[in-house]
Amino acid sequence: MSRDGDPPVNNASGTGPGRSAAPGEAAAEAERPGQSEAPEPFEAQERSEASGAALHAEVRDALAGLAARLDREHERAAHREAVIDRLHEENQRLRRGELQAMLEPVRAALYRLHDQARRESRRLAGLADPPDPKQTALLLEAMADDVADALARLGVERFTVEPGAPYDASRHRPVAVTPVDDPLRDGTVTAVQSDGFAQSGKVLRKAEVSVGKLDAAAKRGPSGDGGGEGEPREDEPREEKDRDVRARDVEDRDAGGDGVQGGPDDDAANGSGGANGSGRTAGGAERVRRPARGGTMNSGRTTNSGLGTDR
Q: 217-249: per-residue pLDDT in tens?
């Protein structure tokens, strides 16, 4: 430094406090490393802050759109729930109306049945004489028909069972067993206690019936040996005996007649004219045959077997 306080003058560079830099020196100073890169961190921070603000704005707008969409969906769901509730209420009202309309014929039939029963009870109470059984039976039959008519309006049909019909487990319910002596009535309906009811071919209530069962004494039969028809069993052995006798006669004829032909020859030798001879010929033919059959049975069977072999 100089004595008067002025900065020293650099003669080599030619710079001083009162002297401007040359254009070449300014360009050299601009090209020095480190001096031009100094403002870049501030610009990057500003750019990052700007991009973060834009991202936040986009997220905020997206969330606002989702919230609005959810609000609209909630309104639609509430509207759908209201429609479903209204339809359910209308459905229940229609069902109650249909049920009432279906029960209306039953109520009308019960009204008629009530009036008829009350009217007849008053009439019977005012009679001095006992009521006519036939008239009472007709009255009860009419009441039963009224009830069956009311059930028919609901689709329930009544079916009846006649005595003598075969027992059907799918339509009949046995309530009693009646012994019968006729085999044809075994397993049939002997009496009807109540009718049955069905709807569209499906049995809702079976008819209550009494079923016949063949008596044990009828099964054994009058002879007590299980014949069933009561005919004696001795006929069967007799028929077998007759068949055996006829079979033996056929064998004798097929044998060639050793014993059978010997009878007439013996009669001719001993004399056939007289009581004794005729008795041996006519009445004693059987006596002649049977010894011959006994004596020539083996030969006859041998001859038959031989004939069968030849054939």
A: 766 655 555 444 444 444 445 555 566 667 677
The model's confidence at residue 96, banded by pLDDT at 50, 70 and 90, is: confident
- Pairing label, strands 157-159, 172-180: unpaired
Q: Minimal CA–CA distance to 206: which of 238, 236, 237, 170? A: 170
Q: Which amino acid is at 285?
A: A
- The first and second tokens of residue 88, run together, are 């359910």
- pLDDT tens sequence across 17-39: 444 445 555 545 555 544 445 45
| Range 290-296 average pLDDT | 43
Q: Look at residue 138 and tell me if it is in a domain.
A: yes
C-beta separation of 206 from 193 below 8 A:
no
Residues 68 and 138 in one domain: yes
Global pTM value: 0.43
Query: Is 9 contained in some domain?
Result: no
Q: How many domains does the chain divide into?
A: 3
Domain contains 135:
yes
Residues 217 and 240 in one domain: no
Q: 71 with 149, same domain?
A: yes
Q: Cα separation of 291 and 284, whole Å?
A: 11
